[in-house]
Amino acid sequence: MKKVLIDIYHLPQFNFFRNTILTLDPSEVDIYCVNRGKLLSVVEYELPDYNIICIGDYKHNKGMFSMIFKIIIPRIYKLFKDMNSKKYKFVVTANYQANFVAKLKGIPNVAFNDDPRRFVFPLLKFSADEVFLPPFEKRSKGVKYFNALKEWAYLSPKYFIPMASALEAHNLERKKYIFIREVSTETSNYLSQTQDLILSISKKIPTTTKVILSLEDKDKASAYPKGWKILKEPVKDIHSLMYFSQIVISSGDSMAREGAMLGVPSIYVGIRDMPANVILIKKDMLLKLEPEALVETTIKILKGEMKFQEQDTFRQSLLEEWDDVTNLVLNKIKK
């Protein structure tokens, strides 16, 4: 029986495809991924019964040159050797590499993207039979649109129910702590971003505020305030920890959007100007700030000096307005 191939290149993409994968029987799908951050360990933890093929290791990533010649090109070559039309009937991605190989092999494929970057996106449009984007203001030719953001595939109330029991393991109380995410700048998305943006202002955040920290580069853990609790990945039900927080702060764009879609006032302090962020900024649940403005704004939110829509009311409004993205992916596979 021919299978579906789903290629996953970083953790937010896995979250996007998780409900789709779990709807499919393990005999129907192969999961390809790359060893990047905590991606491989999370995929193996979440999908113990599925066939997982890891190609490419970001330990070789020391900059743009090594990323291209030690990771991307060897990965495309290995995908070319592995993929064939007798084994796979359809390829689904949120990237471009497997789509490119699928085009060469004549395998139907689709891609779901939310980051139409200058160099990668034209290659994706060339490779994929169909490319889907969220409802960005600036429209692209030859692209289809879905009315939601990718994170809604797993954060919609249809799929995500926050569990207060997730707080117990971390000794947390509802709405009495801040959730912070600090990303590594050693990936292509953040190569031009200043390292340790949140670390640089961490000592200015009031010590009376309880903080839990999702830290991508654990080698720097000791540099953060001693009172901050650093999470150990994979974290069980991390989105419940975000949901019950007072504020979500992130130097990476994905978790900043996740926090906003969970109805939590969220602050993004990274450098990327993404159209996906604009959608939530216009809904008044996401702020994009320079690091030096973070502490003052955080204090204002904690004191109630800045008002946001009530959490569940906001999420219900998104549920009524936005598409069920997981259904869209599944329908493409079924066709």
Shape: globular
Distance between the first and last residues' Cα = 16 Å
* SSE-based structural type: alpha/beta
Low-confidence segments, ≥5 residues, pLDDT <50? Answer: none
Number of helices: 12
- SSE order, as H and E? EHEHEHEHEHEEHEEEHEHEHEHHH
Estimate what percentage of residues fall within beta strands. 15-25%
Count of β-strands: 13
The overall average pLDDT, rounded, is 92
Major sheet attributes: 7 strands, parallel
In short:
By secondary structure, this protein is of the alpha/beta class.
Q: Could you walk me through the main structural features you see in this protein, from its secondary elements to its overall organization?
A:
- The strands form 2 sheets. Strands 3-2-1-4-5-6-7 form a 7-stranded parallel sheet, sandwiched between helices. Strands 10-9-8-11-12-13 form a 6-stranded parallel sheet, sandwiched between helices.
- The model has no long low-confidence stretch (mean pLDDT 92).
- Helix content is 35%, strand content 17%.
- It has 12 helices and 13 strands.
- The protein has 335 residues and is an alpha/beta fold.
- The two termini are 16 Å apart.
